Amino acid sequence: MKISDEISLSARNLLRRKGRTALTLVGVVIGTCMVVLMISLGIAQTKTNEEMLQSWGDLTQVQIYGYGTMMGSDGKPLYLDDAAIASIKQIPHVLAATPYAQGYTMSGTITAGRNDRYTMDISNLIGIDPTALEPMGFALQSGSWPTNTPASEKSTKLQVLVGASTGYGFEDSRKSYNSPKRYRYEGQTDASGKTLPPFVDINKDEMTLTLKTGDGSTEKTRTWELEIVGVLEPDGAKGYWTQSGIVLRIQDMKMLQKVYDDMTKTKEQNKSYDQVYVKVDDLKNVSDVEEAIHELGFSNTYSMNQQREEMQKQVMNSQMIFGGIAAVSLLVAAINIINTMTMAIYERTREIGVMKVLGCELGNIRTMFLLESSTIGFIGGLIGLLISLLASFVLNNLSTILAMFGQSGGLDLSGMMGGGGYYMMDGSGGNTISIIPPWLMLAALVFATLVGLVAGILPANKAVKISALEAIRHD
């Protein structure tokens, strides 16, 4: 028997009992629709979670903290110093690593304007390895990166990067602390609604860094001219300092710290950096890199990937629960297919006997029944997928649809899907509730077809075991 004949015969057999075939399809449709929708909700929430975390910070970045006393495997003190950073850079999948230091341990000011009228606290100084900035995804709005040649203690000029809004960080020292005119904020306007510029123009005005110790007759100072070589592209997710900070080379920051310690006669110095940022090449490698850092002895780490994994676990747990419910629907559908095909065998017993007497091979008979059950699974899966696509469209545009009928509101699925209340999925376009990618559509069709195929194996085997003589005598 040709395969085309088997397909034609199977189609006629399914159409012979249209009502029963339709009822059998319903179970497959419901099961497929539920499975696809549950998975699509999970995919959408995972995507939304990652976008939210990405807005908080770099998902491929690991932060190492050097606070407290750390001990190596040999029992000796462990320091988060340049040697440790060199070891971290050797870890597979690490693109770059840089220490992160702030000027809060020093006393001084950054000044600009005539007679140093405008001032900024020195704590806004940030020390970073400039060679790591570009590999870590930082960009320049204008200018160039600092050179790798650090300044010496005798230098009078320091290369710096600034944020585009750094000028707003200066205060007018001629105004009292209680005067609103002492400060100027980005976006501030005058009485006529005109935007007020910052006190300091980073593109024109000169800036001076001054370290100060003591008071009155015992006061000591040391000054450097700040040479702005580049303006950073603002990126709040990577750090506030890309918007309003002043970035030094880490070697220059260490030099300033040494000069300040000498001025204050401080002998004990911190041998560890407070923080080190590590850039990983891909999100999937963050956990491995973090584990490798722990093996080096630096267990105090943090990455956005930790929160991401926790949120994924919540979504996965919810998907497993609701996916299990959907799987029960497919199981019921499979049982219904078995029942339908078994009844078809009893109704077509004489037909099967005639086919055997005429020399039809057993394999052809088995294939015919498997084709029928697979067709039920495929058609049911196709209809279920189409309904899922329609439901997904409705969910993603729910607010718009409700607005057409004069209603308002949305649908909060964050608790149901284990989102922990991180966001409200309202179907307004801000957050996508359901995502059905092509691979999920294909998987749904294949899975539904396989359910039908597997469900038809038992009836098909039963059909080929029927005796030809007994089948011909069957009424």
Which structural class is indicated by helix and strand composition?
alpha+beta
The coarse silhouette is elongated
Please, how many helices?
Answer: 13
Distance between the termini: 25 Å
Low-confidence stretches: 419-430
For the largest beta-sheet, the strand count, sense and barrel status come to:
13 strands, mixed
Overall pLDDT? 82
The total strand number stands at: 15
| Helix content class | 40-55%
What does this structure look like?
- The protein has 13 helices and 15 strands.
- It is an alpha+beta fold.
- It is elongated and about 125 Å long.
- The two termini are 25 Å apart.
What's the arrangement of secondary structure elements?
Elements: H1 3-16, H2 18-56, E1 61-65, E2 70-71, E3 77-78, H3 82-89, E4 94-102, E5 108-112, E6 118-121, E7 125-128, H4 130-133, E8 140-143, E9 157-163, E10 171-172, E11 207-213, E12 220-232, H5 241-244, E13 246-249, H6 250-264, E14 275-280, H7 286-295, E15 301-303, H8 304-347, H9 349-357, H10 362-396, H11 398-404, H12 438-464, H13 468-473
Helix pairs in contact: 1-10, 2-8, 2-10, 2-12, 8-12, 10-12
Task: List its traits.
475 residues, elongated, alpha+beta, 13-stranded mixed β-sheet, 15 strands
Give me a quick take on this structure.
With 475 residues, the protein is of the alpha+beta class.
